[in-house]
Structures are given as structure tokens and as C-alpha cells.
Write a structure and sequence with these properties.
Elements lengths: L3 H11 L4 E6 L6 H14 L3 E4 L9 H11 L4 E3 L13 E7 L5 H18 L2 E9 L7 H6 L9 H13 L4 E5 L10 H8 L6 E4 L5 H10 L3 E4 L1 H5 L3 H11 L5
Parallel strand pairs: 1-2, 1-8, 2-3, 3-4, 4-5, 5-6, 6-7, 7-8
Helix pairs in contact: 2-3, 2-10, 6-7, 7-8, 8-10
């Protein structure tokens, strides 16, 4: 196991550089779609591919990751919805602990089950405090997790949750409104959370316009992850990447 991805994330944060990740759900793509996404991502200088989903029932995970690795040099980070979503061909794994909920199974239970497989995989493990924020609509992640999302207007709860995650040793904090969210996380909440933690802050869910990605970065997000909007319009990759990467020039 190496720490190349984590070192990259922390170094970029220290340099006030923002990162853009394209999220690919293996259940929603095939070889031709992934190839097209790779071509667009390389041209746009995307920083990371995140691969995973809440269910992943298609058995395409390994093939998807291998296709990306064969075709380009963009790092692949697994974003698993369950312990069986492991591919040894990826570069790193977000080892997600749902710190926003009170479901013990997703706080530590599934991690115990998956630990031997994860250890054997040789993947770089990124312990991640995962916070689901209410995006105004029921999402797959909220249903699968059986946990109530944090209220979108309760900044103080998000602040304390993120601080607790960092104090518990989480390397990353990931705030997610969920795929298909009607509203994205507010810049105010992002700003408040970013001001109290030192670890990289990832923001995802409900980001459908480049302007929102830009504003989230200005508010303090270190990494922007977009999946659902790109599934509908892959050409958004270039605009999103430009918006995210432009923030560093305004620091």
C-alpha cells in the first residue's frame, strides 16, 4: 500500500489547488460509454475517476476499472456502496464510515467484514468520514444506509460532525447530497465546515452546473465530484473541470 493519492490530495490542498473527480457507476455504463468518458476526461485534465455505486449489480466493476487503467493515467479511486465493491485493479479505496448517521453497520460493522479483503487487495486505503446531507429528495444512499441525512440548514451539526470525524483520524471528509439530489449542499455549509477542519474536503451530489462547482470550490471544497449530471451530458466534463481548476488562479 502506498500513499500516493493521499499525498496528492493534501499537497494540492496546501497549494490551494482544487481537484475534479468524475464519478462512474458501473451499473450505468459499458465499454463504449466508459471509453467516451475517458477521452473527454483526458482532454479536460480531470484529476480522478471515482468508480462505484450504492448497489453495483452488473459485475462490470473490474472491467470498468481495467479499461480506465489501460487507456489513461488518471488515478482510479473506488467509491464503494458495500464491502463487495472491491477491485484490486484500482489505485485507492475510500474506506467510508457513515459518520452522519447512527447505523452501526455503516459506521464500523461492514468495515470489520471487509477488512481482510481490503488488506489483501493492496489498494491505498483512504479512511473517509462520509456525511450525507439532505438534498431535498430520497436518494439511493439514504435508503440503503437506513440513516437520516443531516438537515441542509443545520450548519452547526455538519460542523461538529466533520470535526469529530477528523478527530477520530479520518483522512478525508466527504459531504454528499446524494445522486439525483434536488438541491446541492450550500456554499455556507461548505464554508463553515472547511473552516474547522484541516483534512481535504470532498463535495458531491446535486452539482449540475459548472457555476455551482466553482462556487463550492470558492467556499472551501478541495475536491468536487460529479456523476449524475455527466451521465446525462458527458460534455459537461470539460466545463466542470475548467470551473474547478480556475479557482486556484483566484486565491
Amino acid at each position: 500500500m502506498t500513499n500516493l493519492i493521499y499525498h496528492s490530495l493534501t499537497e494540492r490542498k496546501q497549494q490551494h489547488k482544487k481537484s475534479f473527480g468524475v464519478l462512474i457507476d458501473p451499473d450505468k455504463v459499458n465499454d463504449s460509454k466508459v471509453a467516451a468518458l475517458i477521452e473527454l476526461a483526458v482532454a479536460a485534465k480531470v484529476d480522478f475517476f471515482l468508480v462505484g455505486g450504492s448497489l453495483v449489480i452488473s459485475n462490470y466493476l473490474d472491467n470498468c476499472v481495467q479499461l480506465i487503467k489501460r487507456t489513461c493515467h488518471i488515478p482510479v479511486i473506488l467509491f464503494p456502496g458495500s464491502p463487495n465493491q472491491i477491485s484490486k485493479y484500482a489505485d485507492a479505496l475510500l474506506f467510508l464510515s457513515l459518520i452522519s448517521g447512527r447505523n452501526a453497520d455503516l459506521l464500523i460493522g461492514q468495515h470489520v467484514i471487509s477488512a481482510p479483503v481490503v488488506k489483501k487487495s493492496g489498494l491505498e486505503i483512504l479512511s473517509t468520514g462520509y456525511m450525507v446531507i439532505d438534498g431535498g429528495a430520497p436518494t439511493t444512499v439514504s435508503y440503503i444506509s437506513n440513516a437520516t441525512p443531516l438537515p441542509a440548514d443545520k450548519n452547526e451539526i455538519a460542523i461538529c460532525t466533520a470535526m469529530a470525524g477528523e478527530m477520530l483520524g479520518m483522512k478525508l471528509i466527504y459531504m454528499d447530497a446524494g445522486s439525483g439530489a434536488k438541491r446541492a449542499i450550500t456554499e455556507d455549509m461548505i464554508s463553515k465546515v472547511a473552516s474547522v477542519i484541516k483534512v481535504p474536503l470532498i463535495i458531491g451530489g446535486g452539482i449540475i452546473e459548472p457555476e455551482k462547482a466553482y462556487l463550492n470550490c470558492k467556499a472551501g471544497a478541495d475536491v468536487i465530484v460529479v456523476g449524475n449530471a455527466i451521465e446525462k451530458d458527458p460534455n459537461l466534463i470539460k466545463e466542470m473541470a475548467v470551473a474547478v481548476h480556475s479557482v486556484a488562479m483566484n486565491v
